[in-house]
Amino acid sequence: MKSLNIGIIGAGLMGHGIAYLLAAAGHIVRVYDPSAEWRASMPERLKSARDLLDGDPVLLDRISAHDQMASAMKDVAFVFEAAPEKLPLKQQLFAELEALTAPDTILASNSSAIPSTRIGEKLKHRDRVVGTHFWNPPHLVPLVEVIQNEKTSDETIRKSMDLLRDAGRKPVHVKKDIPGFVGNRLQHAIKREAIAMIAAGVCDAETIDEVVKSGFGARMAVLGPMEQSDLVGLDLTLDIQNVLLADLDRSTEPTAFLKDKVARGKVGMRAGEGLRKWGPGEADAVRERLRRFLAEQAKTKTS
Length: 303
Ligand SMILES: NC(=O)c1ccc[n+]([C@@H]2O[C@H](COP(=O)([O-])OP(=O)(O)OC[C@H]3O[C@@H](n4cnc5c(N)ncnc54)[C@H](O)[C@@H]3O)[C@@H](O)[C@H]2O)c1
Hints:
Elements: E1 5-9, H1 13-24, E2 28-32, H2 36-53, E3 63-66, H3 69-72, E4 78-81, H4 87-100, E5 106-109, H5 116-119, E6 129-134, E7 143-147, H6 154-166, E8 170-174, H7 183-199, H8 205-220, H9 225-232, H10 234-244, H11 256-263, H12 282-302
Parallel strand pairs: 1-2, 1-4, 2-3, 4-5, 5-6, 7-8
Antiparallel strand pairs: 6-7
The structure holds nicotinamide-adenine-dinucleotide (NAD).
The site of nicotinamide-adenine-dinucleotide (NAD) has 23 residues, from α1 and α4.
């Protein structure tokens, strides 16, 4: 693919990772962020990503930080927005982008939960507005959900998927702009059941993690749940669902158990306790283990 000019909105956790990924694919990437602090820390964060992945040293020269949106968005073919998760802010940014970009520049939002339908609702040219939901860290986790809203053109989907595939991602086409898209709906279906089992005293949080990591999670990177259903046979899946489904948690709001944890400040690693207890150094060890694991996977896939 030829080198394109690409704009990024937001130099934070997701924005700098998306910038790294696209620069590594050969594109010129300009990152707009109004915060001098975030702009100043970006080179160090990009260098750390490059060191972790043994990336080409010159790729960082293709990324620049901008304090004005107009200079960052000049002649861009794509914009990836990774600003804070607030609808009025994202709508405002997209209105400014419409004024600064060509009508066929693709405007993609990395929102975790806000439908791109809402983000782009006031724009004139809505066919080029799309959701691209990267997973953190975006330069290490391959999946990107490319979400088509009612106005997004097929051409926008195709171009977005081509760009992401060329950059070494695994884009998937999500055909409806629904809350949570696909990945977070699946994750939260698991979390709802897991938290309900802990609250009911079936097992503790350590057991849930062990069951997933040593059980079905151990094979999931090579065998998705649909492949697994076909592997064992849909007749068995039907038999199990006949017994199990009526017994699964069907809460339509978070459990009192979860609300109480949050109310008491037990929010997880940063508080030393959440669903599990976190002693000194334990949370950092988990973060480092995850970072190394994802980097190894990323390097294996590109080598
Ligand atoms: N963190 C995750 O795991 C994750 C995963 C997927 C999607 N997302 C989504 O990505 C988006 C960004 O999340 P993040 O975790 O990178 O947040 P972050 O707080 O790390 O970064 C946000 C950045 O936006 C900048 N910003 C603030 N106001 C701005 C403005 N008016 N214009 C441009 N930039 C502005 C901030 O200075 C900051 O650098 C959110 O929509 C979030 O929901 C996050």
